[in-house]
């Protein structure tokens, strides 16, 4: 394992122990088993370490969602259901998630949401294009539709930003399903998976 990975793992461990919020660069270096000066060779500040860790965590989620879609030979609707289900059920350490939702970490949180939206919207756009080829969707703006879908999942449904009730979330999913069905001229109930229980 290289030193950079050691440092990220050290911060990850400090999150699990509930100590990351108050940890200094020295604490991270000590946990990683390297000299404080060695830390500065890889990262200029604790914020840079956090930024790299968050980026890595979300890159793993993006990779898992992408691989799931690539391995599927299902139709476009099935692939979209797979991707969104995988994203909704992806795991982020609760202590890291809580830290990201603190007001002072808004910039890093916004960057992570943009990372997901940008990467996964490419995959969703390809799925929509597959649906067009299959004749189940009609859409002039696959990329823009993809970005709108992902903005709902990355922002509107983020419980750390909007603490919706279960009923409110379900209503929003029904509205999204209705919009997609009409907007993509898809067969009736194509997007039931958005609000039906798993």
From TrEMBL:
It comes from Xiamenia xianingshaonis. It comes from the Bacteria. InterPro entries: Homeodomain-like_sf, HTH-type_Tx_Regulator, HTH_TetR, Tet_transcr_reg_TetR-rel_C_sf, TetR/AcrR_C. Residues 1-61 form the HTH tetR-type domain. Residues 24-43 bind DNA. GO terms for molecular function: DNA binding. The keyword DNA-binding applies. The lineage of its organism: Bacteria, Bacillati, Actinomycetota, Coriobacteriia, Eggerthellales. This is TetR family transcriptional regulator. Keywords: DNA-binding.
């Amino acid at each position: 394992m290289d030193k950079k990975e050691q440092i990220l793992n050290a911060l990850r461990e400090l999150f699990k122990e509930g100590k990351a919020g108050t940890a200094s660069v020295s604490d991270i270096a000590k946990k990683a088993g390297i000299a404080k000066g060695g830390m500065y060779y890889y990262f200029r500040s604790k914020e840079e370490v956090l930024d790299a860790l968050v980026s890595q965590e979300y890159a793993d989620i993006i990779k898992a969602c992408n691989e799931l879609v690539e391995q599927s030979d299902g139709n476009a609707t099935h692939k979209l259901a797979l991707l969104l289900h995988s994203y909704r059920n992806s795991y982020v350490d609760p202590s890291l998630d809580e830290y990201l939702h603190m007001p002072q970490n808004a910039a890093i949180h916004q960057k992570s949401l943009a990372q997901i939206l940008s990467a996964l919207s490419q995959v969703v756009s390809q799925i929509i294009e597959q649906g067009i080829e299959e004749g189940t969707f009609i859409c002039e703006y696959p990329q823009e539709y993809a970005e709108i879908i992902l903005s709902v999942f990355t922002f509107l449904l983020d419980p750390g930003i909007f603490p919706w009730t279960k009923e409110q979330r379900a209503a929003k999913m029904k509205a999204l399903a209705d919009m997609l069905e009409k907007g993509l001229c898809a067969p009736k109930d194509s997007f039931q998976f958005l609000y039906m229980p798993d």
